[in-house]
Amino acid sequence: MTAVFALTTSFLWGLADFGGGLLTRRVPALTVVLLSQLLAVGALGTIVVATGGWSEAGPQLWYAAAAGVVGPAAMLAFYKALALGPMGVVSPLGALGGVAVPLGVGLVLGERPGILQFAGIAVAVAGVVLASGPSVGGAPVQRQTLLLTLVAAFGFGSVMALIAEASHNLTGLFLALFVQRVCNVVVGAGTLYASVRPGNAALPEGGWSSVRAALPALAFVGLADVAANGTYSIAARTGPVTVAAVLASLYPVVTALAARGFLSERLRSVQAAGAGLALVGTVLLAAG
Predict the structure, then answer these.
(1) Does residue 207 come out as left (phi exceeding 0), alpha (psi in the -120 to 50 range) or beta?
(2) Cα–Cα distance measured from residue 128 to residue 221, given in angstroms and rounded to the nearest whole number
(3) Model's pTM, two decimal places?
């Protein structure tokens, strides 16, 4: 079950990243982050009330609050990087932090995967690295894009490690995700306000009509991201965090395939090889 939930996480994050990257090409990144998370808060709030999630409140929610503070900064940096650089490069690099931080936490806590799983981890991480090769005919990745991607990578990894500690059961998970998203909205709103005061635009050129037209896509991005956090938390609880983190980090393959299918982004053979290695690593991890 760990493999199933972790791979579901990869699928959802991959689609959310693709949608978020597209949106930031026509809507300011901060607005995308804030509105997508605000829509997620509404959905999660309804679920928490319906399931009686308030009864699960406890000290562990501080982990969710911390994830909610780190998350917006990571998402903003990542969406800006996606808008500046090719998705087939930015997304795999951003995934490395999602592997490194939870993997390190798991090892520090005493997890010791078997030989087959260690082999799967090595192969999958190598696949992610190779999949980050530059697109054919594209210019080298700009320093600003690389810096934004590394900031996002560390932030994503930290969120994965924190949210895995924020709940102990399914009802508590709903509450933890709700708290995380509320913090996302508070931090995002404050950042947007600070950004708008110097004269930066909060709305796209089309104004509110463009925002209304983008609401379905914004809702999809926000809810897919929430669902991915939930499936990752379940994966990390049902099996080794080291395995869950690596399998969940394969979402760049989904993003790259979506970019290939919808945007016709051409990838080098090394990137295709990386995707293949990621798949092989997934099989080894699942078999272990």
Answers:
(1) left
(2) 23
(3) 0.71
Residue 62 pLDDT grade (very low, low, confident, very high; cuts 50, 70, 90): very high
Going from the C-alpha of 184 to that of each of 30, 63, 87, 128, 253, the distances in angstroms are: 11, 13, 24, 28, 26
DSSP state of 56: G
Which whole number is the average pLDDT over 136-156? 72
Length of the chain: 288
Among 226, 230, 255, 165, residue whose Cα is nearest residue 38: 226
Count of other CB atoms within 10 angstroms of residue 60: 15
Percent of the chain with pLDDT over 90: 4
Which stretches within the chain are classed as H helix? 2-23, 29-51, 61-84, 87-108, 115-130, 143-163, 170-196, 208-238, 241-248, 251-263, 269-287
What's at 55, amino acid-wise?
S
Closest of 118, 110, 41, 105 to residue 72, by C-alpha = 41
List, in order, residues 6 or more apart from 276 with CB less than 8 Å away: 127
Note every long-range contact of 48-56, with CB atoms under 8 Å and residues 24 or more positions apart, other chains counting. Answer: 48/174, 48/175, 48/178, 51/171, 51/174, 52/171, 53/171, 53/172, 53/174, 53/175, 53/178, 54/175, 55/171, 56/167, 56/168, 56/169, 56/171, 56/172, 56/175
